[in-house]
Amino acid sequence: MIGARMATNTPQAAALNFRLVSVDPSGAAMAVPWREDLVGDPDTGVMAGGVITTLLDHVCGLSVSCAVIAADGGFMEFGMATLDLRIDYMRSAEPRREVIALARCYKLTRSIAFVRATAYEDDEANPIATVQAAFAFTGPRPSQGAGA
Questions:
Q1: For the chain, what is the domain count?
Q2: The domain spanning residue 78 has which CATH number?
Q3: How many angstroms separate the CA atoms of 79 and 141, rounded?
Q4: Among 1, 41, 73, 103, which residue's CB has the most CB atoms within a 10 Å radius?
Q5: Whole-model pTM?
Q6: Closest-CA residue to 133 (of 34, 33, 27, 40)
Q7: Torsion-angle region of residue 71: left (phi > 0), alpha (psi -120 to 50) or beta?
Q8: In the chain, what is the straight-line distance between the N-terminal and C-terminal CA atoms, in Å?
Q9: Mind listing the pLDDT tens digit for each residue in 24-61?
Q10: Which residues span the domain enclosing 20?
């Protein structure tokens, strides 16, 4: 399964101990458990913003893979790169808490995928951060069935 492979086999994701929460054609969710070495400010115990940024970028990429697989009828190798990742931080993460990120790829073109994502602890309606992202395909997609 691509989600489990991407969550565990990517060196950065493995080092941060990312966990796959869910994956389906409409999107993906991953989590990063709280660890003391991931804290940005020892006085607060809050996870570093860079860890949350990495989680959001990673889950956005996974959601693109899910969307391409659904649109093009199965997994085939293709490359992609983060073209744009705009993050709006709304609040600090809660101290000593796992952070979940949920991403949905809402538009595929021949060369770009568009994604929205949210990071939160328990309730997506109370976000730590939201993302608007674009990913460029670095080679042709296997099929162009998703539209232009």
A1: 1
A2: 3.10.129.10
A3: 8
A4: 103
A5: 0.89
A6: 27
A7: alpha
A8: 27
A9: 888 999 999 999 999 998 999 999 999 999 999 999 99
A10: 2-137
